[in-house]
Design brief:
Order of helices and strands: EHEHEHEHEHEEHEHEHEHEHEHHH
CATH topology of the largest domain: Rossmann fold
CATH superfamily of the largest domain: Glycogen Phosphorylase B
Largest sheet: 6 strands, parallel
């Protein structure tokens, strides 16, 4: 019996919860029962919670040695035919992490593909020694995976030329036809990391300007990411007089999170994060047939699509004013929400299903494992 090709998926899975960690978990699970490949996980545990994201520390240095020990054990069990390695993004600490780990990834695996989930490398391109080292190791990898056409600029800036476009995908929970009001209330859902980069404080400012819409509730679901804190969030809500119009249940997962999507009227995604690559919550909302209000930032408009069911707005110099106008327009066009939801659901079915995600990766694996 011939040996199944051995594939290593590198990176951290939840906790903490975030798009990249969830995608790594999804990729591992997608091929855990594969008859064609032996898929294993090279586990990173650099951040125990969101407050540790992108920050250097003594604890992370210790984890670096643990990560290398895991790789040695994995290699000791046999040849690694292919490794999918997650790019750390443009911040200093992840760049150093990649410079220290990628040489070992290249030494222990026949081929390495870099998965660009954290974006922004091209815009943050520095021509210092660290950046030159990062580019040196990336150019020696077999290929790169990007989530959008917009994302091609990152591997290209590092000198990579073999680039595969594989969008994120999420599971289908077969949403039933929805009511966009519950007890006469329309609920705007904002889900994910709560911080300035993701537009949370700006959203509160914008929502406070919607005084004419007393039948609207804002629901914030997720964890605060440093330097934004729970105390700051509570202070912003109180300062704007939104205590009765905004609720924050914290981080929700599984069925609790699915209930949020079922009960929401529309999703707002006001991110202006420099590392934004592909807002996973956008395609989750599409799967649930939700209308969207989304910032025209990096690849957001590409993910939402030209026929977006909702409003794609430009943040502009006064982001709060732009967002408030977009939300106000969406609320005034409530009669179009069923059509918007249908369009978004159709786009999800065409491009962002878990099955398509698995098929695209199976095609990549076949190409990377070919003897050429």
């Amino acid at each position: 019996m011939s040996r199944k090709p051995r594939i290593l998926i590198a990176g951290q899975i939840p906790p903490p919860y975030g798009g990249q960690n969830l995608n790594i978990k999804r990729l591992i699970e997608s091929f855990s029962d594969s008859d064609s490949y032996q898929v294993e996980h090279w586990n990173f545990q650099f951040s125990k919670d969101l407050n540790q994201f992108r920050k250097p520390s003594i604890a992370k240095l210790g984890e670096l040695f643990c990560v290398l020990q895991r790789l040695v054990r994995l290699r000791g069990r046999g040849r690694i035919d292919l490794q999918v390695y997650p790019s750390g993004g443009p911040h200093r600490a992840p760049v150093i992490r990649d410079i220290l780990l990628m040489p070992f990834a290249l030494l222990t695996s026949r081929r390495v593909v870099v998965h660009f989930q954290a974006a922004g490398a091209a815009r943050a391109a520095r021509r210092d020694l660290l950046w030159k080292l990062l580019s040196f190791f990336h150019r020696r990898c077999w290929g790169a995976i990007v989530l959008t056409d917009f994302g091609r600029e990152d591997p290209e800036s590092l000198g990579m030329r073999r680039i595969f476009l594989i969008p994120n995908g999420v599971e289908d929970f077969n949403p039933e036809p929805r009511s966009y009001r519950k007890n006469g209330i329309r609920t705007i859902l904002h889900a994910g990391h709560l911080c300035p980069d993701k537009g949370t404080p700006i959203l509160l400012e914008a929502f406070a300007r919607l005084a004419a819409h007393s039948d609207v509730h804002l629901r914030l679901v997720g964890e605060c990411m440093a330097p934004y804190s729970a105390d700051q969030l509570a202070c912003d809500i109180k300062r704007l007089g939104l205590q009765h119009a905004v609720s924050w249940p914290g981080l929700l997962t599984g069925e609790d999170m699915r209930k949020e999507f079922r009960h929401a009227s529309l999703l707002v995604f006001p991110s202006v994060a420099p590392y934004e690559s592909f807002g996973l919550v956008l395609i989750e909302a599409m799967m649930w047939g939700l209308p969207l209000v989304v910032s025209d930032w990096r690849a957001n408009a590409e993910v939402a699509g030209k026929g977006c069911g909702g409003i794609v707005y430009r943040p502009g110099s006064d982001h709060a004013a732009s967002l408030s106008a977009a939300l106000g327009e969406a609320l005034e066009r409530e009669n179009e929400w069923p059509d918007w939801g249908r369009k978004n659901r159709e786009r999800y079915e065409a491009f962002f299903t878990a099955e398509r995600f698995r098929t695209d990766f199976a095609s990549l694996f076949a190409s990377a494992l070919a003897r050429n």
